[in-house]
Specification:
Elements (H helix, E strand, L loop, with lengths): L13 E14 L4 E12 L3 H4 L4 E7 L13 H9 L3 E5 L11 H15 L1 H4 L1 E11 L1 H12 L19 E5 L38 E6 L7 H13 L4 E6 L12 H14 L5
Parallel strand pairs: 3-4, 3-5, 5-6, 6-7, 7-8
Antiparallel strand pairs: 1-2, 2-4
Length: 276
């Protein structure tokens, strides 16, 4: 059978660029350097008509109990946001076996600065960057949002650029390490629970809007930890929302259902001023 059809272009091709190096961190008794990368998903540019288009960015921080991470493992589910007009970056960061807190946060902030420094080349809008992450990645996405322009965590290159984000979406974030029973977590951050010191943060006024997601059936990180963060943000006068998903466990299927993705998308559109 031979058939000729006419197809309307409604969706752009989504491409993923892998292993983009944003920093070389000194490692192994400062005797070698370890490359830190990020992956970037965005619509393919057709240079004849959209070469100057800049996309709002979701910086994705995956979890892994602070002892491992895979920057691409969640990428299939995050294609949803690229189809809606966002770029998504999956960020590599140091894990507990190699470094100690706050080096992980320093890595993530170094990636934010790198992306801002190369925003034109990457087709990213540097004024519309959100950070989103799950579990340990939710912890670091919350910290990145809370620390804003706190310069003590800015290490490495492109220090003339800001490492602040414009919105934060932590999924089931641990907030009080002493309440967790996870191997290796205890070495991460003895000076955090960060929610207790939220009101003393020097850049509280620049803390971006937060959307926190947590499942009431979480057997690894109790949803009460998400409530702790939400209550502290509310007390400090920070724009914040908490979505509790009935019965959802840690990293459960609930978080990638259409209705939940729409809630996240609506929050990002509103806080990043994205017109649809």
């Amino acid at each position: 059978m031979k058939k000729k059809i006419s197809v309307d272009i409604k969706d752009k091709v989504v491409l993923l660029a892998d292993k983009i190096c944003y920093w070389q961190r000194q490692d192994w008794c400062e005797g070698r350097y370890r490359q830190l990368n990020f992956s970037l998903m965005k619509p393919r540019c057709h240079y004849e008509y959209d070469e100057d288009e800049k996309y709002p960015l979701i910086l994705w921080i995956t979890g892994g109990s602070f002892i491992e991470e895979d920057i691409n493992i969640w990428m299939p589910e995050l294609v949803y946001y690229v189809k809606k007009g966002y770029a998504v970056a999956g960020v590599d960061y140091s894990v507990n076996a190699r470094t100690r807190f706050p080096m992980q946060l320093e890595d993530i902030k170094a990636c934010i600065r790198y992306i801002r420094a190369h925003a034109d080349q990457l087709h990213i809008d540097p004024n519309r960057i959100a950070i989103m992450g799950e579990s340990a990645g939710g912890y670091f996405s919350a910290l990145a949002g809370l620390t804003g322009n706190t310069k003590q965590y800015d290490k490495g290159d492109f220090l003339e650029y800001s490492s602040a984000v414009n919105a934060a979406v932590p999924w089931y974030p641990p907030c009080h390490m002493s309440d967790l029973d996870v191997t290796g977590v205890g070495d991460i951050a003895v000076d955090v629970p960060f929610y207790q010191n939220l009101e003393e943060l020097p850049d509280k006024a620049t803390t971006p809007p937060f959307l926190i997601l947590h499942g009431t059936g979480d057997t690894l990180v109790s949803y009460h930890q998400g409530e702790m963060l939400y209550e502290a943000l509310q007390k400090a006068g920070v724009e914040s929302e908490l979505i509790l998903i009935e019965g959802a466990n840690h990293a459960d299927h609930h978080f990638v259902q259409e209705e939940v993705k729409e809630m996240i998308l609506n929050f990002l559109d509103r806080t990043l001023h994205v017109d649809r």
